[in-house]
Amino acid sequence: MKLHFSKPLFFTLICTLFLSCNSEPSLQTYYVDHQEASGFIAMDFPVSFLDIDINDITESEQKAINSIQKFNMLGYSLKSGSDIVYKAELNFVKQLLKEVKYNELFRLGNSKDGRIKIYTVGEDHNMDEVVILLNSNQVGFAVIRVLGKDMNLSEIMQLGPLIEKLDLDYKNVDSFFNFMKPSAL
Question: How far is it, in rounded angstroms, from Cα 91 to Cα 84?
Answer without folding.
Answer: 11
